[in-house]
Design goal:
A six-stranded mixed beta sheet has the order 2-1-3-4-5-6, covered by helices on one side. With about 210 residues, it is α/β, with parallel strands linked by helices.
Amino acid sequence: MEKLLKGLIKFQEEVFLKKKELFAGLSGHQKPRAVFVTCSDSRIDPSLLTQTEPGELFIIRNAGNLIPTYGAAIGGSTASLEYGISVLQVKDIIVCGHTDCGAMGALLHQEKLQELPAVKAWLQHAETTVRIMKDLYTHLHGDELFAAVIRENVLVQLDHLKTHPAVATGLRRGNLRLHGWVYSIGTGEVWVYDWEKRSFIDPRERKSPTIV
């Protein structure tokens, strides 16, 4: 806690003063560039990853970067998503999974969830991911299986997004775009989903924005 308090003081006395005009502009309104859905994992810093300033990302975080299908669970993630699209008029939604994800590891080893009833219940929003893994990935094991479940879960959550009225309307109007990312904690690599190639690629390889 001492480290956190020292950081707080440094922010107030140094960082805030250097960006005083930015924060003054943000004090009355926000206009983020994107909704960024990612895991609660402490090793992920969306602003550091995207090199964005305060106010540029509307961040939704939870275990496993999950988005319940509309009506399945009207909670914080659903409410934040609706607000970001309908009120803040955000035009891009990013679902970002990551390597070494504990939630995704639990999907593959659900026996570990016996003492975590709340986590087990929450991960039901990734049940489609579990089914896909059982039906399509029986040939994979170990690290390859782990990597596959992380990627597939991002795609499943993008499908879940489409069940939300605000998202469906935005997509139909053509003023909303969905993006799938996977971030490697250990290497700093980020793979983005290419809708035409139907695969995750290095963003430097893409010829046009990866959108749907």
